[in-house]
Design brief:
Blueprint: E1 4-9, H1 14-24, E2 29-35, H2 43-50, E3 54-57, H3 64-70, E4 76-79, H4 89-99, E5 103-105, H5 120-135, E6 140-143, E7 146-147, E8 171-172, E9 179-182, H6 184-194, E10 203-206, E11 210-212, H7 214-225, E12 233-234, H8 236-248, H9 257-275, H10 280-286, E13 288-290, H11 291-294, H12 303-312, H13 326-329, H14 339-342
Parallel strand pairs: 1-2, 1-4, 2-3, 4-5, 6-10, 7-9, 8-12, 10-13
Antiparallel strand pairs: 9-11
Helix pairs in contact: 1-6, 3-4, 4-5, 7-12, 8-9
Bound molecules: NADP nicotinamide-adenine-dinucleotide phosphate.
Residues 9-10, 12-16, 34, 36, 39, 42, 59-61, 80-83, 85, 88, 107, 109-111, 121, 144, 146-147, 150, 352 line the site of NADP nicotinamide-adenine-dinucleotide phosphate.
Keywords: NADP, Oxidoreductase
InterPro entries: NAD(P)-bd_dom_sf (IPR036291), NmrA-like (IPR008030), NmrA/Isoflavone_reductase-like (IPR051609), PCBER-like (IPR045312)
Domain NmrA-like: 4-306
Length: 359
Amino acid sequence: MSRTKVLLVGAAGETGGSIANGLLEQPNFEVHALVRPRSAQKPAIVALQERGVQIRKGDLKGPEESLTDVLTGIDVVISCVGPSEQQDQIPLAKAAKNAGVQRFIPCGFITVAPPGGIMWLRDEKETVYNHIKQLRLPYTIIDVGWWYQFSYPRLESGRIDYAMTSANNEIVADGNSPIALTDLRDIGRYVAKIITDDRTLNKMVLAYNEVKTQNEIYDLLEEISEEKIQRNYIPEETIYTRVLAARQSSETYPFDPIKFIPRYLAEYQLSWGLRGDNTPEYAKYLGYVTSKELYPDFTPTDFREYLETVVRGAAKGVYTDRTISKAQQRFFPRSESSDSLYTRIFPRTESSDSLYMSR
Ligand SMILES: NC(=O)c1ccc[n+]([C@@H]2O[C@H](COP(=O)([O-])OP(=O)(O)OC[C@H]3O[C@@H](n4cnc5c(N)ncnc54)[C@H](OP(=O)(O)O)[C@@H]3O)[C@@H](O)[C@H]2O)c1
């Protein structure tokens, strides 16, 4: 039987890397990666090439015709671009339609949230989904809840800083909102199942491992680490004030990262923390099918086991190879002990042309 030809956009990124791994584990995929010419020599891309991934050079910001050429012969396109790059998928979707791609997976991969003014980032993605539907391009939207890797707080001892992206020391309201969680590393394994499943065509899928509240996450980490973690509850009003202030100062488009980043962080807290959007129940209400319904035999990485690995010092952090500009760092006050964390919270290299680039 011929293999499904999958083209991955963003293979050098965090989500894209997980998906590349998930696809490469299966013999039924021929994996291609659309890579910007300047990124072709990135270690992550070279490593994927060595594992059999075929590189097709291209840029979402390039001419649509050349994107159509890049997509020739591809069955499935999966896009994993960063928050500021969502709209760049529109020409990709058009090219996919022209090239006869059988299924397009736009860059979802976030928490469950309703469209229409709750989360700017969600609405950016929804704009792309609407274009796909107008093109009648076959699609699957995949969301994944909150990554395990972002979900736990810092320990006072500093011993898990190595695996953290931010200090993550805030509990939203009373900390009892249930949150769907997924290990970043499992995303690719879910995607490998979803993209060849007829039941997920033109559907939204929530792939998730477990549901926990912030209080439960703190309890678990305290138990595993045998360290007491200070609980910094942020009142509901503070979250609303932050959202309002961030929205008022981020009206301008295109992006000003200094204004945009606080907005999307505050809106995440609003959505999963206050509104409780990021749950399987709400996902089903919104029309998603869930991984638990589709793949009852799937064995996800256990959250406790993951935290034990973190505390043992054997986990891998995310975005560890990236820095933000000094100018941006100034906007995020740091203590000395957490200094290194804040260089990673908004991950891009200074040489990148993305949202996080210094201007
Ligand atoms: N659920 C969660 O907890 C969670 C957490 C973080 C992110 N996310 C979501 O996951 C999505 C992916 O984020 P990420 O952090 O995994 O991404 P990332 O690591 O920043 O990687 C983005 C990738 O997109 C590629 N790219 C960007 N613009 C491109 C262009 N014009 N042409 C070709 N390739 C381009 C980049 O290529 P280069 O290598 O050339 O730079 C990079 O490989 C985001 O949209 C975000 O919403 C979810």
